[in-house]
# Entry
Amino acid sequence: MYITHEPDDKDAWTCICGNTPPDDGFYPCDENGNELEPDIDGPWDGVRYVCNACGRIIDQNTLEIIGFRPDADLTQDEKTAILADLDIGRSSVQRILNGRKKR
Ligand SMILES: [Zn+2]
# Structure
């Protein structure tokens, strides 16, 4: 599952929910969708962005949906569909659907 971008601007993202940078925007985040500073020396992995509208987490290199915030504005079916696309085990899917533990 992938988001799209304007044909002539690969940074002008359009999320599956319809969000774009001028709307609610996208922010660098950790694996749980918590916003991070895009600091080279900081904790950000340089890959993950979160859609600030729906909470989907995006790989900025491939534009693939690679997760979502625990409080994402998604239905259970949408969450299941995202997880089904990912190369993770069934037990991981269940753990995510049941809510990740906070570190
Ligand atoms: Zn979105």
